[in-house]
Amino acid sequence: MISAPVTLEREEFHFIRDFVYRTAAIVIDEDKHYLVEYRLAPLIEREGMPSFRHLVSELKQPSSGPLRSRVVDAITTNETSFFRDSRPFEILRRIILPQLIEHRRYSRTLHFFFGGCSSGQEPYSIAMLLRNHFPEIDDWNIRLTATDISGEMVRRAREGLFTQFEVNRGLPARLLVRYFERAGIHWRICESIRRMVDFQEINLTRPLNLGKDVDIFFLRNVLIYFDQTERCRLLAQARDVLRPDGCLMLGAAETTVFSNDFFIPLPVEFSNLFYLKGTPSPFHLPPAEPHQ
Ligand SMILES: C[S@@+](CC[C@H](N)C(=O)[O-])C[C@H]1O[C@@H](n2cnc3c(N)ncnc32)[C@H](O)[C@@H]1O
């Protein structure tokens, strides 16, 4: 028997919109009614609920913690890929990391923080890049802290299992061969890379429990979902946990959402990298090359 499709009434849409904003600071525009309906309908079916009204009344119960997480999971956009946008990784490899490594030659420590890491391709890309190109730091104390609000994404990232489609997107074949092994129809990232990344379920709207020891704060393709107040608050947190010569990296489309008093951008040809206002630029930049 084919069941009737569940429809999302306006009032329920507004409740869910406010709930998602209160929980994850994600802004859902008024015209995204269809998107919320589309993303939550499968959840309603999986939960065996008869309607959106039922979902809303469950969300209002104080004991609805796990359901709340599942709703946020279903609403968030988890789009990601290995070496996403490629150029930022090239800039890191050629210009930023060699200098950062030189700056840290005495402490021999590096700490990279990833906000909104989705299923893990971004921190794993950095881990592979470090291992593949900087063998001289193999015995350093390197911390990659990768976080996401979605419990499901964090679980997947920790597992380190990727589909053929996922490894086909952005991962060079030589890195696939070097750092992955077949696991049935999937590919599993090797243990030495997997162990480098500490995945944690963290909501970026809550205070970050970090010391002031972060060298690069990756916040790529996350700010776009927040409003200006929340962006500023999060950028203030990034400022507070960065070392004085550390830097912030945003996503390719995020220059326009970025306006605050805490950071100075590097010239645009060096990707979306920012250093702390009031400090000298931590990196010596070569003359710009034409963008290929
Ligand atoms: C589009 S993905 C970006 C993934 C990766 N940074 C990249 O650029 O490929 C955005 C991620 O941010 C996460 N996210 C959204 N709101 C969040 C919040 N309040 N706290 C932590 N993570 C959040 C989502 O779950 C999603 O996985």
What report would you give on this structure?
The protein has 292 residues and is of the alpha/beta class. It folds into two domains: 10-75, Chemotaxis Receptor Methyltransferase Cher, domain 1 (Orthogonal Bundle); 86-276, Vaccinia Virus protein VP39 (Rossmann fold, 3-Layer(aba) Sandwich). It has eleven helices and ten strands. It has helices spanning 10-24, 33-46, 52-59, 65-75, 87-103, 121-133, 151-159, 164-168, 173-179, 191-194, 228-241, and strands at residues 109-115, 141-148, 161-162, 180-183, 186-189, 197-201, 214-219, 242-250, 263-265, 273-276. The strands form two sheets. The protein has a seven-stranded mixed beta sheet with strand order 6-2-1-7-8-10-9. The protein has a three-stranded antiparallel beta sheet with strand order 3-5-4. The chain is globular and about 60 Å long. S-adenosylmethionine binds at residues 24-26, 76-80, 84, 116-118, 122, 148-150, 153, 203-205, 220-222, 225, 251.
Outline of the structure:
By secondary structure, the protein is an alpha/beta fold. The chain is built from eleven helices and ten strands. Strands 6-2-1-7-8-10-9 form a seven-stranded mixed beta sheet. A three-stranded antiparallel beta sheet has the order 3-5-4.
